[in-house]
Task: inverse folding
């Protein structure tokens, strides 16, 4: 009986390992604006595909990419607000350069910035502000230098299910 339990335990552990690998590695190729794993959104920007982490709540939006030492070349974060407003982002506890792009209601690039790392301990009131340049509900952050490398410009379009994303945002 003990051997049978050990065999079952080995099978369960093995099956969980395979399942975990499948979840981590994902499956298939994404297309523009395709939903990815829970908490991510696949999107095409400048002809390249990205899997962006979703920041849909106030706490997630404040945390953003703070405290990260690395942003994958095909990664980043999609910030979604439930309504349009003028937005400003800062580099609070950000350890690597970040590019930000603000999108209009139809996914057009309104403004974009290359955000530099702030010195450690910079007081909140002294952090440089990066503005949207108009009312927006969507911002995307990517690894520093990505927007320039891709040649993204104001007026370019990023396909996203904006209405659905805003509906889910808190």
Result:
């Amino acid at each position: 009986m003990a051997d049978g339990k050990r065999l079952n335990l080995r099978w369960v552990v093995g099956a969980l390992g395979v399942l975990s690998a499948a979840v981590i590695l994902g499956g298939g190729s994404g297309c523009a604006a395709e939903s990815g794993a829970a908490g991510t959104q696949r999107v095409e920007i400048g002809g390249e595909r990205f899997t962006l982490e979703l920041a849909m709540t106030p706490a997630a939006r404040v945390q953003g990419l703070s405290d990260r030492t690395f942003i994958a070349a095909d990664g980043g974060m999609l910030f979604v607000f439930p309504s349009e407003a003028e937005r400003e982002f800062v580099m609070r506890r950000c350890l690597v350069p970040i590019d930000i792009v603000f999108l209009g209601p139809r996914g057009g690039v309104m403004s974009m910035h290359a955000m530099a790392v702030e010195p450690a301990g910079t007081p909140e009131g002294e952090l440089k502000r990066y503005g949207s340049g108009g009312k927006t509900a969507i911002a995307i952050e990517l690894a520093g230098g990505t927007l320039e490398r891709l040649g993204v410009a104001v007026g370019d379009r990023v396909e996203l299910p904006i209405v659905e994303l805003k509906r889910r945002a808190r």
Summary: The longest helix spans residues 2-25. Residues 1-37 have pLDDT under 50 and may be disordered.
